[in-house]
Specification:
It is built from 14 helices and 2 strands. It is globular, with a radius of gyration of 20 Å. The chain is mainly alpha-helical. Helix content is 75%, strand content 1%. The chain has a two-stranded antiparallel ribbon with strand order 1-2. The longest helix is centred in the last third of the chain and has 27 residues.
């Protein structure tokens, strides 16, 4: 029996321990980074990690449908763009209040996800990938056609969103903790969803949709629900991204950006929620370090990512589990 194998006995306890400890350690280290910055770490790193945490929210949202639901969405950047343009357009029109902007953005993302998800989920496999890509590109070209808001040149924001009139996003350290708090909330929400009955049905449908349907669940409704929640979460990251960069561009919702999100999830470990966070952090930091060394950094970056994914089954989270298992053994 498997349970009698010495190897199995040695490795099994490591995984739940690691899964339990890794998220608090990650968030603790992130919370301490501003302190390191105050002690001499270049301020550039605070900005970089803030950007990485914003993309970690988007990667986390994608992992919810890709890793847990088995749905490869290749147009997820569209939600980032909708969130960013929502913030940009409202600020341009004089509405900077965060408590007004966020509900509007989340509602628009939910409507877009419901419509596109309803159509996309009629398909499976490669067809699903292609149709989500098509919807993403439609959003991209729509943004390019918004000549009143910059069109192809993008939209510059001369103000940031405020909370009751207070510029809480204007301070770099304050913005950092807002991004960290948002990431922590999204992670908590994703964990709650995955451990709920809804999440268990979603995972079961990934393994065998027919069997789940026979038990009485409507698989399409469950998948659509996950897709809508995921889209709203990605829209939240777009809102933060627009406020960090003070700029909105159609490139935010282009297909290469969707590909990068998939890379982040695969790099961190598909299906591991904290892995998606690690994947986004590793992706953005590696990109920044290599681009500071050479102009042709993409020639190094691409093969490096591919080799890492090929030789570390399960991404960074999988590698950490292996190391934890060996240490226990």
């Amino acid at each position: 029996m498997a349970s009698s194998s010495p190897t199995a006995v040695a490795t099994r306890p490591a995984t739940p321990t690691l899964r339990r400890l890794a998220p608090p350690v990650i968030f603790l280290l992130l919370a301490l980074l501003p302190l390191a910055s105050a002690l001499g770490l270049p301020g550039h790193w605070l900005t970089l990690v803030t950007r990485a945490m914003i993309f970690a929210i988007a990667a986390l949202s994608l992992d919810l449908v890709l890793g847990i639901g088995g749905l490869v969405s290749f147009g997820h950047a569209a939600f980032i763009g909708i969130g960013a343009y929502g913030a940009g357009i409202l600020i341009t029109e004089g509405q900077t209040e965060l408590l007004v902007a966020l509900p509007v953005i989340l509602l628009v993302c939910a409507v877009f996800a419901t419509v596109t998800g309803y159509v996309s989920l009629r398909t499976r496999g490669v067809a699903f990938i292609m149709i989500t890509l098509a919807f993403g590109q439609m959003a991209f070209y729509f943004a390019q056609a918004l000549s009143a808001y910059g069109g192809d040149d993008g939209l510059t924001l001369y103000e940031k969103s405020t909370l009751f009139g207070h510029d809480i996003l204007g301070n770099r350290t304050g913005f950092y903790y807002v991004a960290l708090g948002t990431l922590a909330f999204c992670y908590w929400l994703a964990r709650r969803i995955v451990s709920s009955r809804f999440g268990r049905v979603l995972r079961a449908a990934r393994e065998n949709a027919v069997r789940v349907t026979v038990t009485g669940y409507d698989v399409n409704h469950v998948r659509l629900g996950a897709y809508v929640i995921s889209g709203m979460m990605a829209g939240l990251s777009g809102f933060l991204l627009a406020n960090q960069t003070d700029f909105v561009s159609p490139a935010y919702m282009s297909w290469p950006r969707s590909g990068e999100l998939i890379f982040m999830v695969v790099l961190g470990g598909v299906g591991s929620l904290y892995g998606a966070i690690l994947g986004a952090l590793a992706f953005l930091v590696t990109e920044d370090v290599l681009s500071s060394l050479t102009q042709n950094w993409k020639i190094i970056f691409g093969p490096l990512i591919v080799l890492f994914v090929l030789f570390t089954r399960g991404g960074i989270a999988g590698l950490a589990k292996k190391l934890g298992g060996r240490r226990d053994g």
